């Protein structure tokens, strides 16, 4: 704190010291206790110089007083508000802009004082008039004041953020609104004014204006992730939406609406001032950084407390187990989402666009989750937090502990359970998924085009790929269990032996076994292919069968049929 005060009043203190040196040389025995009239009488014909120097001394003195008062008010407000959300939301949106106005005046005053004292220093000791130097300082000061003023006005700009999603009309999505309204009644919270559904793996509420491709929506908004809803059970979904509604109940969104813009605005101001690389602003940027860090300590505590309270509401809407499983799913599945996006961008480069990313995501989760042991999953998840567009969250381990759930009982099977809670809440879920995918893919294609040339060749799935997908899918599912090791081997080897092999397409075959022909029919239809291809396919299927360490009778039967029909 003391360092912050020193940064702000350092220049005025130096200015006062220089005034003292000059006046002491002009008037031996000078003291600041002397009044201006006495100084002028003793000036020996330099009364104008004395008067100006004294003015600069007065300016510097008042700059010190105003700086101390400004920072004193700020730190007193921080101490008074503490972690009280209502006080923070009431005080700082008004105080921070006022302080910036005062700091802007500080900069102007410091520039005037420095210019004047430097003028006297150069002329008195060096007998030089530093016109160019003073012009540069003055210009820098004006630029600094303008930069601060612009940042002040930006704080009064109403906050709004863009999200890629679709607004759900109450008229056409009555089931969804009835479900959310009933849950609001159960946890005794306010109802959302808007519900937006998107593909991003997240859930959140906000009172900040939200912009989508359909327009700007005001009031309380609830964002739902359709892919995550497909993976959560209804009880798990209750816990997550209950948590979000808990923020309405505690009036958290109003706190975020009022405080977050000015908090974020202060950070943006610092960045903007640092980018000016103006030496006149340097002390102020240091001061503002110290202020932001001071606020951040309280905000971190507030964020933790509000999330813990909302977690309790989520448990009220379901159970500690449902909430803990849902929380774990969101964290781990968000990582799968990023992996799926990387894979999707690779497919875009090859001119292969998935028409339903929600289905692709489900397959990605389904066939990758089991590759990790539960202890590995737990250790990864527990140290992470969930992203929110307007604030931060505590790490998962703290939140699990807060709801008194025994995390030791969590298993991979619990996480693999595909709940499909979305099925009863949307009349045309498939149509909504396709619409959201189209919207999302347009943005992804644009991103890819910025850095990579898209291959415009035809990449339609050919007969060889269809054959490999179908026969490999039949072998993976032969024993009635979709084993993760078998899937991994099938994907890796398939990609190695045939360059058009696509993991996303293959997974869709495994997920929809009813669409592929019988294994015997495939063998008969393909009995005329060359012997080299037959042996390659046999070896491929054999390695899939052996990948889980067990050679199941059903797998052996398929391979025996292959050798009989193909005469291997």
What's this, in brief?
By secondary structure, the protein is mainly alpha-helical.
Topology:
Elements: H1 2-26, H2 36-41, H3 47-81, H4 85-126, H5 131-155, E1 160-162, E2 166-167, H6 174-187, E3 194-198, E4 204-206, E5 209-212, E6 215-217, E7 221-225, H7 226-231, H8 234-249, H9 252-276, H10 282-316, H11 320-349, H12 357-368, H13 374-382, H14 396-402, H15 412-416, H16 429-451, H17 463-476, H18 484-497, H19 503-511, H20 519-525, H21 531-546, H22 553-565
Parallel strand pairs: 1-5, 3-7
Antiparallel strand pairs: 2-3, 4-7, 5-6
Helix pairs in contact: 1-3, 1-4, 1-10, 3-4, 4-5, 4-9, 5-9, 6-8, 8-10, 8-11, 9-10, 10-11, 11-12, 12-19, 17-18, 17-19, 17-21, 18-21, 20-22, 21-22
Structure commentary:
The chain has 568 residues and is mainly alpha-helical. It has three domains: 2-157, no CATH class; 166-254 and 296-441, no CATH class; 463-565, TerB-like, CATH 1.10.3680. The protein is 68% helix and 4% strand. It has helices at 2-26, 36-41, 47-81, 85-126, 131-155, 174-187, 226-231, 234-249, 252-276, 282-316, 320-349, 357-368, 374-382, 396-402, 412-416, 429-451, 463-476, 484-497, 503-511, 519-525, 531-546, 553-565, and strands at 160-162, 166-167, 194-198, 204-206, 209-212, 215-217, 221-225. The strands form two sheets. Strands 2-3-7-4 form a four-stranded mixed sheet. A three-stranded mixed sheet has the order 1-5-6, with no helix packed on it. Strand 5 (209-212) and strand 6 (215-217) form a beta hairpin. Helix 4 (85-126) packs parallel to helix 9 (252-276). The chain is elongated and about 115 Å long. 36% of the residues are buried. The model has no long low-confidence stretch (mean pLDDT 82).
